[in-house]
Design goal:
Strand content of chain B: 5-15%
Structural class of chain A: alpha/beta
Helix content of chain A: 25-40%
CATH class of chain B: Alpha Beta
CATH superfamily of the largest domain in chain A: Thiamin diphosphate (ThDP)-binding fold, Pyr/PP domains
Number of strands of chain B: 8
Strand content of chain A: 15-25%
CATH architecture of chain B: 3-Layer(aba) Sandwich
Number of strands of chain A: 12
CATH class of the largest domain in chain A: Alpha Beta
Distance between the termini of chain A: 37 Å
Largest sheet of chain B: 6 strands, parallel
Radius of gyration of chain A: 20 Å
Oligomer: heterodimer
Number of helices of chain A: 12
Structural class of chain B: alpha/beta
CATH architecture of the largest domain in chain A: 3-Layer(aba) Sandwich
Strand order of the largest sheet of chain B: 2-1-3-4-8-7
Shape of chain A: globular
Largest sheet of chain A: 7 strands, mixed
């Protein structure tokens, strides 16, 4: 038996290739953000490394630390026919650009009666694990999912990271891509995706099939859920893992089909559980499948607290594979 | 100081008057129509500020792009926004430029470069930078203009934007229309420093304070800023001094404006002043100007009639224009 090749490809490498391929294929793709060009290091974690050298300083621009100006420049350039990919370094920094994102990027198509549109991508990273505390790690996807006119995506594999980013850049509407900091660097695949690879927006992935319980999740919690599902299988529990990939607008058909099959739903996200994306999914599943559910819908999410600093508190804050496995066994037994 | 090439010729002054006459007549009609109950709409009168965008627009082309604000209908009309599509949008009808989905605070007409109208104070400036960046990438000499009021000059987004325009050398004109009141509050009570134009020095770009009610002075300032932007010489901040003859929004009596201040401003109404000057200088006759005004009234009559006889949108329209793809039922 041949040993399977050791994975070397990370989400970070996939994102870098997606941006490079998009820039190479379409001269209208332009990039902006803090420290993004090569003289500044090619991005704080290196997602844009090499791109300003390859595609020029006009198209790949470092910006001042000025998130409203970054978002405004992206919106304006998109109105004039460009496809800007704006990096807001950390998701918490979107809070200082909410006016541009919510009042303008998301609404200009509608408010103009379709005369203008805003084909931008906002790339932003977040996620706990590096002890950054309360202002660098929040998952705020529910805020954006609540605004009509902007799509929200998150990947948990290099293939999905590549395919979602390429689709987001090609999409005629604004897309917020949430990247996870700790999983940037995890080797997960053996080959970088081909330039033709796309993941359609609005389409979830059934990453593991199962019959006893459905987990609906996304971002790093999809990675944790896959681990928990594999461990549950050793106990004879068959778990289906659905990675939403697009958080808004989300793939109701795939989720409902899965829960119809298993009769049990557990939603897992890193964001604070209260008023989170899980609440919407739980509500829709309850409305559509009430008579077919074998248990009330369960949710796991971040604690109702700001993200803490101290390691034991950080560990206690969010779900992990062990806690997911524990909940799976509670649900099924 | 205006250089020779930026002197408003008689033809330009007449062009500016034609625009101001349209803006003044349209404002008067809007207030009349709201009062009559024929159309219910939110409205922020610009009466008194007409010369500023009229002189600016005399320097602009259709492909030059504008981001304006809720008190910006004068900016749009001066740049050529068609009356029928504007009035139908006021009335919330499907024939409005935005199909009734935007309303008077979000009027848009890209064919004339009217790209964004925002209801958020200070938000025209960041987006204008992106339009300027696109012009730079296109190697076009078109320019972008962000108009905003004195109140917006204290918003962080405006400062972020002027700084970015400076470091990227963008072809953007930041036009602050200082009407001396930010909503209900006097300019001097809320603004540090003597002038808004003076803030430009902090960003290393030219800043000029000009009498925005003086057509020749306003034209010279705008023409110079536009010429700089077209030549790749970067952004300019213009502070156009003007005055607002009405309250913040329709229905606000503006009692916070001292009576003497208002009386002096009304006595110096820039539109009849320009009219009188054109006649006195022999640039146009009374009859010629009256003919222009009569023509404008007829165009507005037709626009109002078109608007109120146009169909209303239907509930199903909510599913369209949220995304390119319609929202599922």
């Amino acid at each position: 038996m041949n040993a399977s090749p050791k994975p070397t490809v990370t989400i970070l490498a996939a994102l870098n290739k997606a941006l490079a391929d998009a820039c190479a294929e379409d001269a209208k793709v332009i990039l902006l953000g803090e420290d993004l060009a090569d003289p500044e290091g090619g991005g704080i974690v290196g997602v844009t490394k090499g791109l300003s050298s390859q595609f020029g300083d006009d198209r790949v621009r470092s910006t001042p630390i000025a998130e409203q100006a970054i978002m405004g420049a992206a919106i304006g350039a998109s109105l004039a026919g460009y496809k800007p990919v704006a990096e807001i370094m950390l998701m918490n920094f979107t809070t200082v650009a909410m006016d541009m994102i919510v009042n303008h990027a998301a609404k200009l198509r509608f408010m103009s009666g379709g005369q203008t549109h805003v084909p931008i991508v906002i790339r932003t990273m977040t996620g706990l694990g590096f002890g950054s505390g309360g202002q660098h790690c929040d998952y705020l996807e529910a805020w954006f999912a609540h605004v009509a006119g902007i799509k929200v995506v998150a990947a948990s594999t290099p293939e999905d990271a590549y395919g979602l980013l390429r689709s987001a850049i090609e999409d005629p509407d604004p897309v917020l891509m949430i990247e996870n900091l700790p999983t940037y660097f995890m080797p997960m695949s053996t080959e970088l995706p081909d330039a033709s690879h796309r993941v359609p927006l609005g389409k979830a992935a059934v990453q593991r099939e199962g019959s006893d319980l459905t987990i609906v999740t996304y971002a790093r919690m999809a990675n944790e859920s896959r681990v928990a599902a594999a461990q549950a299988a050793e106990q004879g529990i068959s778990v289906e893992v659905v990675d939403l990939r697009t958080i808004a607008p989300w793939d109701r058909e795939t989720v409902l089909a899965s829960v119809r099959k298993t009769g049990r739903l557990l939603v897992v996200h890193e964001a604070v559980r209260e008023h989170g994306v899980g609440a919407e999914i739980a509500a829709v599943v309850s409305e559509e499948l009430f008579g077919e559910l074998r248990m009330p819908v369960r949710r796991l999410g971040g604690a109702y607290a700001p993200v803490p600093y101290s390691k034991p508190l950080e560990d206690a804050f969010a779900p992990n594979a062990a806690r997911i496995l524990d909940t799976i066994t509670q649900c099924v037994n | 100081m205006a250089t020779k090439s930026y002197v408003a010729s008689p033809a330009i002054l007449l062009d500016i008057y034609r625009r101001t006459a349209l803006l003044k007549a349209n404002d008067e009609r809007v207030r009349k129509v709201i009062t009559s109950g024929k159309i219910a709409m939110v409205y922020y009168s610009y009466r008194g500020q007409e010369v500023v965008p009229a002189a600016l627009s005399a320097c602009l082309r259709d492909d030059d792009q504008l981001c304006t604000i809720y008190r910006g209908i004068h900016d749009m009309l001066a740049k050529g926004f068609p009356l029928k599509e504007m009035w139908a949008e006021f009335a919330g009808r499907t024939t409005g430029s935005c199909k009734g989905k935007g309303g008077p605070m979000h009027l848009t007409f890209p064919a004339k470069g009217i790209m964004v109208t925002t209801g958020i104070v200070g938000s025209s400036a960041p987006i204008a930078n992106g339009l300027g960046w696109a012009a730079q990438l296109d190697k076009s000499d078109r320019v972008a203009v962000a108009t905003f009021g004195d109140g917006a000059s204290n918003i962080g987004a405006v400062h972020e934007s002027i700084n970015l325009a400076a470091v990227w050398n963008l072809p953007v004109i930041f036009l602050c229309q200082n009407n001396l009141y930010s909503e209900h509050t006097a300019y001097k009570k809320m603004t540090g420093g003597e002038t808004i134009a003076g803030r430009a020095a902090g960003y290393g770009i030219p800043g000029v304070r000009v009498n925005g009610n003086d057509p020749a002075a306003m034209y010279a300032a705008a023409a110079e800023a536009v010429a700089r932007a077209r030549a790749g010489e970067g952004p300019t901040l213009i502070e156009a001094m003007t005055f607002r003859f009405h309250g913040h929004n329709f229905g606000d009596p503006g009692e916070y404006i001292p009576k003497e201040e208002m009386a002096a401003a009304l006595a110096a109404d820039p539109v009849p002043a320009l009219r009188a000057r054109l006649i006195a200088d022999g640039i146009a006759t009374e009859d010629e100007l009256s003919a222009i005004e009569t023509e404008i009234e007829a165009e507005i009559d037709a626009a109002v009639e078109f608007a109120i006889s146009s169909p209303w949108p239907v509930a199903d329209d909510l599913r369209h224009d949220v995304f390119a793809q319609e929202i599922a039922r």
